[in-house]
Hints:
Blueprint: E1 17-20, H1 26-35, E2 40-43, E3 58-59, H2 63-68, E4 72-75, H3 80-90, E5 99-102, H4 108-120, E6 124-127, E7 130-131, H5 134-139, E8 142-147, H6 150-163, E9 164-171, H7 175-203, H8 208-217, H9 223-234, H10 243-255, H11 263-278, H12 286-294
Parallel strand pairs: 1-2, 1-4, 2-3, 4-5, 5-6, 8-9
Antiparallel strand pairs: 7-8
Bound molecules: NADP nicotinamide-adenine-dinucleotide phosphate.
NADP nicotinamide-adenine-dinucleotide phosphate binds next to helix 3.
Amino acid sequence: MNFSDQTKSSDMKTDHIGFIGLGNMGYPMAKNLERAGFPLAVYNRNIAKAKDFEHHTTVQSSIVELVQSNDVIFSMLTDDKAVLEVYGIILEQEIQGKLFVDMSTISRGASVALAAKLKERGASFLDAPVAGSTKPAADGTLIIMVGGEQADLERARPYLEKMGKSIKHLGENGKGIAAKLAINYFLSIIYQGLAETILFSDKLGIGRSDMLEIINDSASGSGATKVKTPLLIAEDYKPAFALDLMLKDIRLAQQAGANYPLIGTLLDTYQKAQGNGLGQQDVIGIIESIKQFSI
Ligand code: NAP
């Protein structure tokens, strides 16, 4: 679909799209919006990450300018602190009629409170966090979990469809984040299970390539195990999803009520790995930390 088709039936005005946060995820997501031909403006705190956009995309040097000149604004930021800082600036602007779509993984409480504040100012808000890492972000095949009003989702849908293969509307504001915390709880368990299994098979003298092929061909293999296979074989943990972010999400799950038998173990494992300086490595780098503690 070309951006000339992106009209609102009520006033035939084309929405201008803004994107804040061009990190590991935000950059490829914004690139997909650019590729689709939408009138796009991007902002990143470290402006160096905003290079490589085409001439028809506007690179803004401030959040204020980005918000003033756009109608539907996506954000993909680290955590509560980052989102609250960015939206603190946004809330000081004239934002009547604008739609904000936060795709970051943050706490449910912060997200719901933000939705209420934006609504008080005449703007709309969707929480729309994603499942899938940098490859699905680049391929436009993320799973997008949405909380908020149906009409707002319909306004955002043409853009979300360029970033994700599946858009799940789960109910009111906060429900998208709720689903995201649940799936990442599962993911943190998978990664710890995978790391322990590989260490166990190492100990028994089975080559990593052989073991990972067996896992991936079996019922216990998944997209999550497949995507971490090359990192485990190369023992090189360049981040697609940083361990710091996974630990953030386990803590958010605990705050949201995940008081199940594994939560303490997960916190202990990922905290120790962070303490061992692995926080900026990929999440599956926990294997290096578990190895030290299990010798
Ligand atoms: P990232 O690479 O660390 O990017 C974080 C982005 O937030 C950067 O653009 C960063 O700007 C910006 N930022 C941080 N603090 C800021 C502040 N105070 N003001 C303005 N901008 C700020 O993280 P990511 O991997 O893209 O993840 C983004 C979100 O998606 C996180 O909530 C994460 O949990 C979630 N997520 C990640 C993955 C994944 O596989 N990576 C998958 C699903 C969901 P600078 O460049 O200036 O630092």
